């Protein structure tokens, strides 16, 4: 997994500050149907600070996930159980996913993580190729309160 901070010009143009890239090699390390951290680090307990403000989200299945038959879906939440995306977003067809729940900004009032729950109809280890890009617009409001 890669977390790519977008450069100032990209952030100014798009409004997004981070791009998370998940590949088939990443998802096969997860337990199907169990939430795992994807930000600020992959599948570990690192947390972002209270005062993190999530203002937008976009998801692009850059390369459809392949390697076996069946469904592969994803849902995004935060540690406080705020839904950031709709449940059951398919990762087996390439394209931008329009269904997400971030209808208003979320102020994280406690330390936390962004979590992905990836669910595979068959063994998660059967997925051999695929890539999804998750774009986030994040602000650290603590930097404003000095």
Structural description of this entry:
- There is one protein chain.
- With 146 residues, the chain is mainly beta.
- Helices cover 8% and strands 43% of the residues.
- The protein has helices spanning 8-14, 24-27; strands spanning 2-5, 18-23, 35-39, 52-66, 72-78, 89-90, 95-97, 106-107, 114-120, 129-140.
Note the topology:
Layout: E1 2-5, H1 8-14, E2 18-23, H2 24-27, E3 35-39, E4 52-66, E5 72-78, E6 89-90, E7 95-97, E8 106-107, E9 114-120, E10 129-140
Antiparallel strand pairs: 1-2, 2-10, 3-9, 4-7, 4-8, 4-10, 5-6, 5-9
Task: Write a concise synopsis of the structure shown.
The protein has helices spanning 8-14, 24-27; strands at residues 2-5, 18-23, 35-39, 52-66, 72-78, 89-90, 95-97, 106-107, 114-120, 129-140. The chain is mainly β. The strands form two sheets. Strands 1, 2, 4, 7, 8 and 10 form a six-stranded antiparallel beta sheet that branches. A four-stranded antiparallel beta sheet has the order 3-9-5-6, with no helix packed on it.
Mean pLDDT score, rounded? 91
Largest sheet: 6 strands, antiparallel
Element order: H for helix, E for strand: EHEHEEEEEEEE
Helix fraction bin: under 10%
Net shape: globular
CATH topology: Jelly Rolls
Number of strands: 10
Tell me the radius of gyration. Answer: 15 Å
Distance between the termini: 33 Å
What structural class do you assign from the helix and strand content? mainly beta
Task: Examine the secondary-structure arrangement and name the CATH architecture.
Answer: Sandwich
- Helix count equals 2
**Segments where pLDDT lies below 50 for 5+ residues?**
none
| Approximate strand percentage | 35-45%
Q: Please, how many domains?
A: 1
What's the CATH C level? Mainly Beta
